[in-house]
Amino acid sequence: MHPARSVIFFTTASGAGYGMMVWLAVLATLGLLPTDLPFGLVAFGLAFALIVAGLLSSTFHLGHPERAWRALSQWRSSWLSREGVAAILAFVPLGLFALCWMSLDRQGDVALLFGIVGAAMSLLTIFTTSMIYASLRTIPAWRNGWTVAGYLVLGPMNGAVILALLFAVFGYDGVMVTMQAIALALLVLGVVVKALYWRHLRVSAPVSTAGTATGLGHLGKVELTASPHDSDNYLLREMGFRIARKHAQKLRRITILLGFVVPILTLGGAMLMAGGAMATILSLLAWLACQTGIATERWLFFAEAKHVVTLYYGEQAV
Amino acid sequence: MTSLPETTAKKLGLVVDLDICVGCHACAVNCKEWNAAGKSAPLTDYDPYGKKPDGVWFNRIHTFETTDDAGQGQTVHFPRSCLHCEDAPCVTVCPTGASYKRTEDGIVLVNEDICIGCKLCSWACPYGAREYDEHAGVMKKCTLCVDKIYNTNLPEESRVPACVSTCPAGARSFGDLGDPQSEVSKLVAARGGYDLMPEQGTKPVNKYLPPRPKEHHKGQRGEDGKAPRMLAHADASTDGAGLIARWVDKILS
Ligand code: SF4
Ligand code: SF4
Ligand code: SF4
Fold first, then answer.
1. A96 and A224 share a domain?
2. pTM of the prediction?
3. For chain B, which terminal residue's Cβ has fewer other Cβ atoms within 10 angstroms, N or C?
4. Considering only residues 73 to 132 of chain B, which have any Cβ-Cβ distance to chain A shorter than 8 Å?
5. Could you list the residue ranges forming a coiled coil in this record (chain A) (predicted)?
6. In-domain check, residue A222
7. pLDDT above 80: residue B88
8. Is A116 a domain residue?
9. Is B223 domain-assigned?
10. pLDDT in tens, A127-186
11. Is residue A154 part of a domain?
12. What is the pLDDT of residues B167-226, one digit of tens each?
């Protein structure tokens, strides 16, 4: 599948934003979230900025962005529509949570209630995003539980890494260590989920073949000898995108290294230091590596996924 | 509404006979011709006279070759267009309601006035039947010539999809596949018509008829299993030749 830049940015950015919101709510509930205004403004502001930037960018690849509101209408059948509805509904509790936290009612029950509902809505929104992909039978690489698990783990993981950095910058050493511990646990979980996702791709049997696509399988091996057109068409550009196997392997290694291994080492180091300038620098490195790794992971998620329509263009099994 | 109708009054669709199709692309050309001026107009072409011509087509003709265990092969021309599926995934994924299936005849259409061009329906279709128009920013697809088959300005016999009226070989039939008594349903029953990628769960309305079994080694091929020898270049006798030819032959020999 063609890895559209706007979709990669959208899913990683809003995933990270929702992930931050989840942990802000959890820390608030545990009574660990710092209550000072500058921190609140930066943390909530960044989370909202990531969510909004992601949602806006997701409209860029539309042929008619001005009609985007129409996408809210078909939630009965369409996961894309459900995602839109969930994303908009999530703004209500998340906005109230941020407002309450930063103004009147610091640690009051009302703020916490909005926080918990907001966190649940954030996870629900990430889930609906993952289901857009996981519900497509035409792309077996996506139609499995590991797709959902990947989105649900990587968003909160990314959010945790960002929050760990913010706590380091603001010098909240106590809660920083908690956040680092959470981030480390999620980084380990994340690499396990990705490894299992790739294992699933390797071991699962093909769903459709050139034989079933043409119905000529009973005649033996089916091979394309003439394509309907000489140059690329929409189908080949959008659905036929693929990367060389050797690049896929290299990019998987980059994903594992930057997305997980480097952040685990740097965040682990920062945790041992328990504060100070060096801890901040290590947390920054952890975030930079993690962000690059997740972007690579998302690019691969598209580029590696084969669509069954390629069976009409020379592919043997998908 | 992009929820699918429970049932449709008719199941209009095509039957494509792979035994007859000669891969001439006439159906694809006439499809383009009709639809470039009809409901879905224009079917945009990009770089039409340049090095890499490209554009929106609703019907594309592939050619496949099969090889069995004995090494015997067959060439099969394979027209590919929307199958107007009963459980059309392109419809249910659509977030706007632009993609829909008609209750009266089962035709799957796009309302271009509300399509946002998200392309998700083209991802959901296993058959590559939807093509995005980059200029219009909306998705387009085969309409089963909805603006032709009901058009009372046309003579009765012309009220069939453009691909069907144009096929010089008679490889394409059109009718109600929901009615077991219709000509197309009888044809499908008689010839063992089948669904493409049934495992995708789309329940296509269009059916394909398989190539008839080839009787290898009987008549079509020579003793050595290869194609029959060419005729000798010179005839040995004048049996069956005309009067003048026999007379010239007598003079010359
Ligand atoms: S062939 Fe594709 S576009 Fe046509 S109805 Fe079926 S899924 Fe939809
Ligand atoms: S491209 Fe148009 S018709 Fe297709 S799913 Fe999106 S809005 Fe619906
Ligand atoms: S016009 Fe008829 S014979 Fe020619 S490609 Fe189309 S179906 Fe085949």
1. no
2. 0.91
3. C
4. 73-76, 78, 80, 89, 91-98, 114-120, 122-128, 131-132
5. none
6. yes
7. yes
8. yes
9. no
10. 999 999 999 999 999 999 999 999 999 999 999 999 999 999 999 989 999 999 999 999
11. no
12. 999 999 999 999 999 999 999 999 999 999 999 999 999 999 999 987 654 555 666 656
Q: What is the mean pLDDT of residues A299-313?
A: 96
Instruction: Dig out the tokens for A64 from the structure.
Output: 């008619």
Comparing B37 with B208, the larger pLDDT belongs to B208
Among B4, B11, B85, the mutation site with the greatest number of ligand 1 atoms within 8 A of its Cβ is: B85
Q: Within this chain, do residues A203 and A280 fall inside the same structural domain, yes or no?
A: yes
Q: Which residues pair with A223 in a beta bridge?
A: B65
Cα separation, B199 vs B221, in Å, equals 37
Question: Coil, strand, or helix at residue A238?
Answer: helix
Do A94 and A190 fall within a single domain?
no
**CATH number for position B135:** 3.30.70.20
Single residue among A90, A120, A135 that ends a domain in this structure: A135
The 3-state secondary structure of B52-73 reads CCEECCCCEEEEEEEECCCCCE
Residue B57: is its pLDDT beyond 70?
Answer: yes
DSSP H helices, chain B, are 26-35, 89-92, 120-124, 146-149, 162-166, 183-191, 243-252
Share of chain B above pLDDT 90, in %: 76
Q: In the beta sheet, which residues pair with residue B108?
A: B101
Looking at every residue in chain B, the average pLDDT score rounds to 91
Range of the domain at A11: 1-135
Set of chain A residues whose Cβ sits within 8 Å of the Cβ of B123: 1, 136, 138-139, 238-239, 307
- For chain A, the 3-state helix, strand and coil shares in percent, each to the nearest 5, are 75, 5, 20
Asked whether A154 and A15 are in contact (CB, 8 A), the reply is yes
* Rounded Cα gap, residues A95 and A305, in angstroms: 36
Query: In this structure, are A129 and A177 located in the same domain?
Result: no
Domains: count for chain B:
1
Looking at the CA of residue B119, tell me the nearest atom of ligand 2.
Answer: 1
Count Cβ atoms within 10 A of the Cβ of residue B234 and give its class: 0-12 exposed, 13-18 middle, 19 or more buried: exposed
Does residue A284 sit within a domain?
yes
- Using a CB–CB cutoff of 8 Å, tell me whether B180 touches chain A: no
Using 50, 70 and 90 to split pLDDT, how confident is the model at B253? confident
* Token pair recorded at residue B176: 């109600």
By the 10 Å C-beta count (0-12 exposed, 13-18 middle, 19+ buried), B209 is classed as buried
Extract the tokens encoding A221: 């091996």
Range of the domain at B121: 12-209
How confident is residue B242, by pLDDT bands cut at 50, 70 and 90? confident
Tell me the average pLDDT across A256-285: 93
Q: Is B241 within a domain? A: no
In this prediction, residue B229 has a pLDDT band, given cuts at 50, 70 and 90, of low
Residue B231, pLDDT score: 59
In a domain, B37, yes or no: yes
Supply the pLDDT for residue B219. 54
- Which residue of chain A is at minimal alpha-carbon distance from B47? A231
In chain A, the residue whose alpha carbon lies closest to the alpha carbon of B4 is A77
